[in-house]
Design goal:
The protein is α+β, with helices and mostly antiparallel strands. The chain has 2 domains: 6-131, 2-Layer Sandwich (Methyltransferase, Cobalt-precorrin-4 Transmethylase, Domain 2), CATH 3.30.950; 134-211, Arc Repressor Mutant, subunit A, CATH 1.10.10. 36% of the residues lie in helices and 25% in strands. It contains 7 helices and 10 strands. The chain has helices spanning 6-15, 31-43, 65-76, 134-143, 155-164, 171-178, 182-194, and strands at residues 22-25, 47-51, 79-80, 86-92, 95-102, 111-113, 119-125, 128-131, 198-203, 206-211. Strand 6 (111-113) and strand 7 form a beta hairpin. Helix 2 crosses helix 3 and helix 4 (134-143) crosses helix 7. The chain starts with 5 loop residues before the first helix and ends with a strand.
């Protein structure tokens, strides 16, 4: 098999377009904004950022060392806990393109820190970075539980399942429909999703929950 040079390798990646595991960044002017992409990849299936590539796929290149510094800041200062990330630089016609590869994390949630110091976790859906729902956070907490996830079919669980029957509901709608306290709904939904009894879909800019 022939080995591709930098230009052909990058063009091969660019031809894929932006998707669940790939994002283009024309320039890095804000480490905190870049941290959102790092958080989303780390919390989902992993992915790569092509830095120095415009949305239309044109390779404009990384401008200077300041951008490279901000890339590292995004991963190591503006993500909590620190995200794992690998930077590889490719050279094309006098321009430098950086490919930042982020593996899926086993320490989810990886949160991005905003200007006000707030920690927010993101997930990657198609080519978008979306703020994770409280249910995602509950699922990740359960995954960190050394005792594993345990669920008993109590009357409350049956009530929640009944509320989901033939429905696609937002979290708030499900709380109202089930009349179960919101924190309990979040915890039980996380368990139902873990055991593949319920599912979460992102539609029309909102998370909808339903039975599988």
């Amino acid at each position: 098999m022939a080995i591709m040079d930098d230009k052909h390798y990058l063009q091969h990646l660019i031809d894929e377009g932006e998707h669940q595991q790939q994002d283009f960044k024309y320039r890095v002017s804000d480490a905190m904004k870049l941290a959102k992409s790092v958080s989303a990849f780390a919390n989902t299936d992993g992915g790569r950022l092509l830095i120095g590539v415009r949305d239309d796929g044109h390779m404009s290149g990384v401008r200077d060392e300041e951008e490279i510094y901000m890339m590292h800041q995004a991963a190591y200062r503006y993500c909590s806990p620190q995200a794992s990330i690998q930077f590889d630089t490719y050279h094309v016609e006098g321009r430098n393109i950086v490919v930042a590869t982020v593996p899926p994390s086993d320490k989810r949630p990886i949160c991005a820190i905003d200007n006000d110091g707030r920690h927010r976790a993101y997930i990657r859906i198609a080519d978008e970075n979306i703020v994770a729902s409280p249910v995602h956070l509950a699922i990740w907490r359960e995954l960190q539980n050394p005792q594993g996830t345990i669920m008993t079919y109590t009357d409350t669980v049956r009530k929640l399942i009944a509320a989901l029957e033939n429905q696609h509901l937002t979290l708030n709608q499900l709380v109202r429909r089930s009349t179960i306290p919101r924190p309990k709904v979040i915890t039980l939904l996380a368990c139902l999703i873990h055991f593949q009894i319920a599912q979460c879909e992102y539609t029309d800019q909102q998370f909808l929950f339903s039975l599988v």
